[in-house]
Specification:
The C terminus is likely disordered. The protein is of the alpha/beta class and 748 residues long. The strands form seven sheets. A nine-stranded mixed sheet has the order 22-21-20-19-18-17-16-23-24. The longest helix is centred in the middle third of the chain and has 19 residues. The protein is built from 23 helices and 26 strands. It folds into four domains: 167 residues, no CATH class; 57 residues, no CATH class; 135 residues, Transcription Regulator spoIIAA, CATH 3.30.750.200; 284 residues, Aldolase class I (TIM Barrel, Alpha-Beta Barrel), CATH 3.20.20.
């Protein structure tokens, strides 16, 4: 079969339908089962068109089929997610080859062999797309295919599969499959998928199982129970003894079972029987389609610990209104939080599914979803999986809507908003998700430690965040203790800051100690004045630091002096930069920090040129934070300054790395990639000179506020709002909602 690079579901288990159908056919027929996943050359191969070929080469499949000829009939099982109603070239070629093996008289059937647990794309045009086949059996196949083959006439046309009595079904015919080759195939899929993480691993001998079919809940987006007639209630059929099925897989040597049920825990006694069998046969297991959160108890997590890699639940929306009125989930969001708490207590990884872009869902409600997802991640470590609401044909979400024609539905969940009539347009939805993913990356770390080694400084900057504090050095022993403590917690990055850190006589030894105990990235931020002394400049850049940032706040002596309060500072800083550039060994990165003020915001071009002329290729542009000496009297008009920064980026982005700090995304639409430095504060731990420790983002958030316009901003899940400078009036530059949501120019 062919799959998209962004496939969803679990196509590497789609052979279960064929194996189960083979078991149903055996009582009346001699059956040859050719499983394209269990031939020697079966693998995942990425084609030139970007799609993946999953299974053995077609020639090998047809050769294996021909080896068992002659046949009275042939059934080709397909997943309905193979791109109906489009004609898939690989499936078409398979049918032509099988037809040639059969000869003209024997019937050739297509069958979905629906098993439950995977998306189903409703279509009436499958047989039209594949005229090579004589008949097509939609939905379940175990009852209808044997009946058609036993009939007096060769099967023709479209047939609606009858529902099977699960207890009457024979077990899947895994004895007809080369399971060693099947294991090797799954191992190659994992190795060649390109996916960095697998929440539901397939290792050892992993075999799929279905212990129930269907789901009694009527969520609007779900394609479960595809064979349900209009007005018919949704139901679930369960095997009365799921343990027998699981025991049979253990007899085939399974070490892990992938339970593909649509919803395995809708009845507690059934789920308990599954767990009993898993424990009795000492198996690992996964439930990729997930659980109902409101039916999971702390005792379930305790039983699953050590056997399951990830427990998956679906929240869908963080808005209870959307959940009730749009999704129809019949779930209280409090149950998701309860599950996250139980999972954390039990030490079981939890994955929570969310959707954005549902019909009638507002921008503030999307933010409720993203903020709740991040809250559960931050508090409990619950991994969020955010997808676009994708209306598969046949679902309630698609009913009555003109759906877009797509080549493949799989990527739509991941990359392409495709819900017609959504209240939030596709481009804005992409910005919501882009910001969410950046915020999630920042929350994952890597964490960094920031150590204020001193409050002493030989400048007197008008905006200094610690300028009102007593100018003392930190205690070197305590600061080493902090370095050791955070290193034990896994941190490998540290910043030494101040005050002016070069005034602390312990700075170089602190840098050396940090490298000695395993810190890999060490940054120092300095005004550079002491580096005008050649010996010190050489000692600093060779001390073990990896980055050195120079604070420069004007392109000339006059402007710089107005910001830092020392007339001679500019010449000394520039000389210090030159000496550090001259002595810096390979691998040490040098850059410039600029704090934007009322006195320099119109000189940013000249400052950037100065950095370039001094051989610096990285510049940080920092807006004021309301701490220390910074007040509204020092701050420029923020929107005007932001527009100047955007012009600067346009002119210099190809030559200079430019980062913008302490500014909400909404003030620089289209330049979000340059504002990601603020995201890093989420994983920054600051140690003050008095040994007080804080999370940097939480510390700065104390002086930020949100405005009503923020509720619907696509960047709200990251942004803490606007900084409040002391005594500042309501900001006249606060932009209107219609400006806030205007299309961005660039998202990279």
């Amino acid at each position: 079969m062919s799959i998209a690079r962004d496939w969803i579901d679990y196509p590497y288990f789609s052979d279960l339908g064929a194996v189960q159908l083979a078991g149903a056919l055996r009582p009346a027929h001699d059956v040859t089962l050719v499983d394209a996943f269990a031939l020697p050359a079966s693998t995942l191969h990425w084609r030139r068109d970007g799609r993946g070929h999953l299974g053995a080469p077609l020639e090998d499949v047809l050769d294996a089929a021909a080896a068992g000829a002659p046949y009275d009939a042939a059934v080709v099982t397909i997943t309905p997610f193979h791109r109906p109603p489009h004609r898939d070239p690989l499936l078409a070629a398979t049918l032509r080859g099988v037809r040639a093996i059969l000869g003209p008289g024997a019937p050739l059937l297509l069958a979905d062999a629906y098993q439950s647990g995977q998306h189903y794309v409703e279509s009436d045009a499958v047989l039209d797309a594949y005229p090579e086949a004589d008949a097509w059996v939609k939905y379940e196949a175990e009852v209808t295919v044997p009946a058609l083959l036993a009939g007096p006439e060769p099967p023709r046309g479209v047939h609606r599969g009858a529902r099977a009595d699960l207890d009457a079904l024979p077990p899947p015919a895994w004895d007809l499959v080369d399971l060693d080759a099947h294991d090797a195939f799954l191992a190659r899929v994992t190795a060649r998928s390109g996916r960095p993480r697998w929440h539901f691993p397939i290792d050892g001998r992993t075999l799929p199982a279905i212990t129930s079919r269907g789901c009694p809940f009527a969520c609007a987006h779900c394609s479960s129970n595809p064979d349900r007639a209009p007005g018919e209630p949704k139901t679930q059929r369960r095997r009365s003894d799921p343990g027998a099925l699981i025991g049979g897989l253990a007899d085939h040597g399974a070490t892990r079972v992938a339970i593909l049920d649509e919803l395995v825990n809708v009845r507690r006694s059934h789920f308990d029987a599954v767990l009993d069998a898993i424990e009795a046969h000492d198996l690992a297991f996964e439930v990729p389609n997930g659980f109902r959160a409101d039916y999971l108890e702390a005792s379930h997590f305790a039983r699953m610990r050590g056997r399951v890699t990830t427990v998956s639940v679906s929240a869908e929306s963080g808005s209870q209104r959307v959940l009730d009125e749009v999704v129809g989930k019949q779930l209280d969001l409090a149950d998701i939080e309860r599950c996250a708490d139980h999972a954390k207590d039990a030490g079981v990884p939890l994955l929570v599914h969310w959707m954005i872009g549902l019909p009638g869902e507002t921008a503030p409600e999307i933010n409720q979803t993203l903020e709740r997802a991040l809250e559960l991640f931050d508090r409990f470590g619950a991994e969020p999986a955010v997808q676009y609401a994708t209306p598969l044909p046949g679902t309630a979400l698609a009913r009555g809507r003109q759906l877009p024609v797509v080549d493949d539905w799989g990527p739509s969940f991941q990359r392409v908003p495709s819900q017609p009539g959504a209240a939030v347009d596709a481009e804005t939805l992409e910005r919501f998700r882009w910001t969410f993913e950046r915020r999630l990356e920042a929350s994952r770390g890597p964490d960094k430690l920031i150590v204020n080694v001193t409050y002493a400084c030989n400048n007197h900057c008008t905006f200094c965040a610690v300028g009102t504090r007593t100018q003392v050095d930190g205690h070197p022993t305590r600061q080493r203790e902090h370095l050791a403590l955070y290193r034990e917690r896994g941190l490998t990055m540290v910043d030494f800051d101040g005050g002016e850190p070069t005034l602390n006589p312990e700075l170089l030894s602190l840098i050396g100690y940090a490298r000695e105990i395993g810190y890999e990235r060490v940054n120092v931020t300095t005004n550079g004045r002491r580096c005008a002394y050649d010996d010190y400049a050489r000692a600093l850049v060779t001390s073990g630091l990896t980055t050195l940032l120079f604070s420069v706040h004007g392109p000339d002596a006059r402007t710089h002096a107005q910001q830092v309060g020392v007339a001679e500072a500019f010449d000394q800083t520039v000389e210090g930069i030159r000496r550090c550039v001259a002595h810096a060994p390979p691998g040490v990165e040098l850059g410039m920090n600029v704090t934007i003020t009322k006195g320099n915001h119109d000189k940013l071009e000249a400052l950037t040129q100065l950095a370039w002329d001094l051989s610096l290729r990285w510049i940080n542009l920092q807006f004021l934070t309301p701490f220390g000496r910074a007040t509204k009297w020092v701050a420029p008009d923020t929107r005007a300054a932001a527009e100047g920064v955007m012009r600067l980026i346009d002119a210099w982005r190809e030559r200079m790395k430019i980062q913008v700090i302490n500014l909400p995304f909404c003030l620089m639409p289209g330049y979000e990639a340059h504002l990601e430095g603020d995201l890093a504060k989420l994983s920054r731990h600051m140690v003050f000179v008095n040994n007080e420790t804080v999370n940097l983002a939480a510390y700065l958030a104390e002086r930020r506020r949100r405005e009503p316009v923020c509720e619907g901003c696509p960047h709200a899940c990251f942004c803490g709002g606007f900084y409040e400078l002391e005594g500042a009036p309501e900001p006249p530059w606060l932009i209107a909602p219609e400006d806030l949501l205007r299309p961005a120019r660039v998202l990279t």
